[in-house]
Specification:
By secondary structure, the chain is mainly beta. The protein is built from five helices and 17 strands. 11% of the residues lie in helices and 32% in strands.
Length: 253
């Protein structure tokens, strides 16, 4: 199916038969990316001793009936709402009420600052023209490789957005921030969560419909530029949910 969109008075076309999936699939075990110092996800057959059945066809059961144990924040691509940092239980299902957005994919090399690697406001300002009028920003950190799909992030002091960088994104009225890191904030920041709070403008002018998607992976074959973003979540009543962001190339031919 091919669709036509009107963006800023110009007509664009997208082919829904050519999706560009930038999510990391959740799988059982250590081949899954992991952060926040918890065990890897587990997907295993359910055993019911009382009824004497097993949820595995390979083990003699009638169907495969797996139990899945994971944490959306630690184990793969996930989308979160401001409920991630509030005492009130805001949930992602009520925050993300639409799923199609115009997004700008940019590649940024974090800058070394002491022992840290940061993405700062000045780097993002270089893309001011490209980001104008966009619903979403997708930040791909450089260097980039498929190691990100299995990276064990614990105790790595991953790169992060400065508070000023996150505030700048919010100032552009960009409602959806996607990044290929476990968090937009520093791994160990003593609970300050400066980038989260700046992006959501929390607590004074909280943007309840804004979302942050972390642990994406955009391979180099997907070039920087403007895309139609389809951001889908599992319908969890929770601050975060596993998600599947999919891009579609736009052209005006």
């Amino acid at each position: 199916m091919k669709i036509t969109l009107s963006i800023g008075g110009k007509e664009y076309h997208a082919d829904t038969n050519l999706p560009l999936d930038i999510s990391i699939a959740l799988q059982s075990g250590v081949e899954n990316p992991n952060a926040w110092y918890i065990p890897p996800p587990v997907i295993e057959a359910e055993y019911n001793e009382e009824e004497e059945w097993v949820g595995s066809v390979a083990e003699g059961g009638p169907v495969n009936f797996n139990h899945i144990s994971f944490n959306p924040h630690a184990h793969g691509t996930h989308t979160e709402c401001v409920g991630h940092i509030t005492s009130k239980k805001n949930n992602i299902l009520h925050s993300l009420t639409t799923s199609h957005f115009i997004a700008e994919l940019i590649s940024v090399a974090p800058i070394k600052v002491g022992e840290d690697r940061q993405i700062n406001k000045e780097q993002l300002e270089e893309y001011a023209d490209e980001l104008e009028g966009k619903d979403a920003i997708i930040i791909r950190t450089v260097p980039n490789s498929n190691i990100k799909k299995t990276q064990q992030y614990n105790h790595t002091n991953w790169p992060y957005l400065t508070e000023e960088a996150a505030a700048y994104i919010a100032s552009l009225d960009i409602k959806h921030l996607l990044i290929d890191l476990p968090s937009v904030d520093k791994e160990r920041d003593n609970g300050k969560l400066l980038a989260h709070k700046a992006f959501w403008k929390f607590p004074k002018n909280t943007r309840k419909q804004a979302t942050i998607t972390e642990l994406i992976y955009a391979p180099d074959q997907i070039i920087d530029g403007t895309y139609l973003l389809n951001l889908q979540i599992a319908p969890f009543v929770n601050d975060a949910s596993p998600s599947r962001p999919v891009l579609y190339a736009l052209n005006n031919k």
